[in-house]
What does this fold into?
Amino acid sequence: MTGERAIYLRDIPLDDAWAAFDAALEQAGLDGPFPAEDVPLDAALGRVTAQPVWARVSAPHYHASAMDGYAVRAGDTLGATETQPVTLQEGTPEDRARPAWPVNTGQPLPAWADAVIMIEHVQPLGDGRLAIHAPVAPWQHVRPLGEDMVATELVLPANHALRPVDLGAIAGCGHAAVRVRRRPRVAIQPTGSELVQPGDPLVPGAIIESNGLVLAAQVRAWGGEPIRLPPVPDERAVIRAAVERAAAGADLILINAGSSAGSEDHTAAVVDSLGDLLVHGVAVRPGHPVVLGMLHVQGRRVPAIGVPGYPVSAALTGEIFVKPLLARWLGIVPAPPPTIEGELTRKVLSPAGDDEYLRVAVGQVGERVWVTPLGRGAGVITSLVRADGIVRIPRFSEGHAAGDRVRVLLTRDPGQIARTVSIIGSHDLTLDLLAQFLAERHPAYRLSSAHVGSLGGLLALRRGQAHLAGCHLLDVDSGEYNVTYIRQYLPDAAVRLITLAGRVQGLILPPGNPKGIRGIADLARPDVRYANRQRGAGTRLLLDHLLGQAGLAPDQVRGYEHELITHLAVAAAVQSGQADCGLGVLAAARALELDFLPLAQERYDLALPLEHAAVPQVAAALDLLHDPAFRAAVAALPGYDISQMGEVAAEIRPAGSKPGI
Amino acid sequence: MTGERAIYLRDIPLDDAWAAFDAALEQAGLDGPFPAEDVPLDAALGRVTAQPVWARVSAPHYHASAMDGYAVRAGDTLGATETQPVTLQEGTPEDRARPAWPVNTGQPLPAWADAVIMIEHVQPLGDGRLAIHAPVAPWQHVRPLGEDMVATELVLPANHALRPVDLGAIAGCGHAAVRVRRRPRVAIQPTGSELVQPGDPLVPGAIIESNGLVLAAQVRAWGGEPIRLPPVPDERAVIRAAVERAAAGADLILINAGSSAGSEDHTAAVVDSLGDLLVHGVAVRPGHPVVLGMLHVQGRRVPAIGVPGYPVSAALTGEIFVKPLLARWLGIVPAPPPTIEGELTRKVLSPAGDDEYLRVAVGQVGERVWVTPLGRGAGVITSLVRADGIVRIPRFSEGHAAGDRVRVLLTRDPGQIARTVSIIGSHDLTLDLLAQFLAERHPAYRLSSAHVGSLGGLLALRRGQAHLAGCHLLDVDSGEYNVTYIRQYLPDAAVRLITLAGRVQGLILPPGNPKGIRGIADLARPDVRYANRQRGAGTRLLLDHLLGQAGLAPDQVRGYEHELITHLAVAAAVQSGQADCGLGVLAAARALELDFLPLAQERYDLALPLEHAAVPQVAAALDLLHDPAFRAAVAALPGYDISQMGEVAAEIRPAGSKPGI
It folds into this structure.
């Protein structure tokens, strides 16, 4: 292409971005609901009515018996009493006086009849004669024509998403099909020479094409019809040709990624060359390098959205731009997510110029609801997967202090929050297993664990932010685990200490131990890079203890300040060459097929404030410690000892409390 | 079949019914989650994980640059300052000292590099030399291997319904497919010689097969796979053969209907002959003739549910029995419906022995939420369609008094309740049009109208139960419409009276007027049956006025006590021969192609308490009275006059209030 304009990324506020997009949609006549199509009723679930549904026939379309019994003329039954029954005769008026005609529920009344007598109230006398002992009122036990719907009546309005019962009503008033909005067709064009398909072999730099999958599922969930296109390489002309081709059959095009302003970012230029580049950069976080444009292709206007490549940004761009647009085209207002209010567990600083979508975990302990900010990296899709909701922090707010009440837009059934076991503290692999077994044994319950280290867990218990804390804190003076620390950090609580497992800690090493690390003293070698755990982690305290024993100071350890928050993260750092060793559990080393130098055997306990002992999901989770299948699964983890699993290691009562209280 | 047992219908409590069903499911090994199957990720939306998803590869699976810039060794940048820049050289360590290697976001770092400098912080000096003015820390702007997921880590638990972002996470950690629960296959067998397909021509007695459609859509919405079978006639042997055939390929069979104990009710006997009849009759209302059984077919156990034929009963049987069973087989706990609390607008008597599922409309006026019971007929599917929710009245409760606070299980987005215009009062066809236009022009808003007659509407306004009341109340002394009545019924309110339309009232007659009805005096003829409107209806007051003018008393009119609540219901009664005439609007007569004898021109107004004038959805609805398309639609109704539409007929202030207040 020649005459190409320079493209700059300039973040504008979300409202301004929508205003620019709206104006272009309006100009193109694409700002309102879509045209209609007729679909058969058995394919109409979830579709949106494009016009009102009026009854074509009445329902019932005849006077129907509401009971099994006899159709009669009410006038013929006048005067019947217990002592002076009236006698009716089975048959029609042509051949009988006082006729009675047998009908089952739902059958039509003969033209001459105007009431039904229940079969239980009729006494057969033989010879087709029937005695009745009470008169009936006109229209008794009759469902009159039109009781449910009268022909020409409004049955359903336009812009209504069809539910199962709606389909029954539409069929019941005589329609075989229903006029609904055409589903918006959304073409999804992945771009990037580095893309490979899920499950394909990976070389460094290869990126699994997962955003297309997420965007397609979002489009489907929001009532559109996704068209997933094969990825194209990062070549402007190739992308341009692909987008132009895709635009011909689509109502909206999502181009992913290349929406920023780097040397391989072509989306903005492609949109500019095929129509109007309206917005390049939106002040939202995550997700700011968004492109909004209106293509002019073969005489049609087709809106295009350049979706950022980071998975969290891509998913949020779907939520922020695609979902409202599809709703407008379908003529619906999406149900707002359920919300919950809670207290922030820690401070959140937010960039002043951006609307931030903060992923959070939500925990309920007793009556209090706690909101914990999760990782904010745009590349960490598990932060979105594990999130219980989103806190929107508007631009020009600078964030929130710990303890602030915030409103969470939940991405999970609110009822599930109240049925979740909240474990905060040290990371252990068995917590993943416990979550898995709880989900399988008790589908109503869920276990959420946050990894803030053993001390952090005890502090969370003190603040009432968790049901349980996982900890492995060695008192170097007494050699005892956890008890000393609980007395110190939870002086006013009655706490039961329940052993989860014994486990082996040691140095995780690359396969073959290339640097020949033989013990803790080697951590002082200038050629050895260490991967540490965060402050307050039991494993970090163990390292400090081992360093002290070896007469070493932290500043002699290269990488001491390199903090990671799980055993597996330490193992991954060693596997990838980021570090030469790190202290962690044997199971983490084995999981990534690494070498291991054992240094200590320790006990990992769950601290349970007794006030939470009767919470049903907590009790259910602790019961699993006695479940043979769970015990076997933990025992199968390398270096884990289940001999004390589920035992009460100690009952710790507040100083000064009387026994039994 | 020989040796057939007698089958009796005996209602048992819901809990007992479930207990019997549960025991049989457990014995058949069908009480827990289903086996698993692998599905590709692009077909997995909404499916339920059958086992945990563990990361197969780490994500990222290499150290990735988080920025566009240069990969460097952090150690090489030490000492760089604004005044004393460090010079790096583009290239690799083999050919350069202090190497710097260009990387884009997402690209892998070379093995020797451990940090990235953003391109904005690098000053090219030419000759491949690059000046930097600040040192970088190790791992700055690097997304380390495993930042998102470390191989072997738990990504998702079992029993989790997959959302779009979950699919991204599963793909991102190296899976192309996911192991999910097999979808339960639910065979739906309609029975009934009278069944016809939606849209087919109708003869009296023909019943449109709509329940199969509803049940299939429910099964699909709840995660199962419906198998709709063609209807079979009401012959026991034929039904038995069809059910036996269907059982071979299904996990659950729904037999609809014939679940009661009449002469054409074969479901219980068929279930009994093919296995164990566990329950016949459940004390729920509507829906009591439910059959629960366990078939033994070709060595397999297949649960069967006999679903009652009335459409409301059928849909509720789905909710009460099918939904929980599918959830259990899928290993999920369905999200409970949102609930809202409100005050009952009228008394509800409930049969003491039954669990009742009462359909209700929910309206919010100001801060108060009002719950209005809807029709309780099991045949009226529109009561379920129009319902905003269900109030469960447990057995042994006798019901509720007006004003009682009840909890409603909502079948609608709770937000929609707060955005609904609530009109209570007289029925007019233009209210249907108003609802339709509001839904089209403002998809966020909804209009709900309850038909309780003109006086009932004013009483509802007085109690604060509606935003607007529709009324057409002639003061026979003054000849004025509505004002007198508002002063009488709403003495303390400031009310604006806005004209909706003028309309013609008269006698609705069968085509050709076979009884030769010429005027109101003919209503006294003994051969003329009249269809009346309910007490408090403006049309009934008009009748009384016309009768008085003619010197007639109500008891001279045959059918005076035959009360219907809409003009269309009156027209339907005339069309069907239930009555020979009835007072109503011309448009209702025309809608059903009936004759009409005009008797009066009247004005239909909307009464608006001024306190509701600023409610956004109310203002939006009233604005439509000036919308040319809406006016044209009303003008097209026979007998409607729009010349005063939208005009303020009167502003009525409480007696004693000062002007302007």
About this structure: Chain B is about 25% helix and 30% strand. Chain B touches chain A through 126 residues (CB under 8 Å).
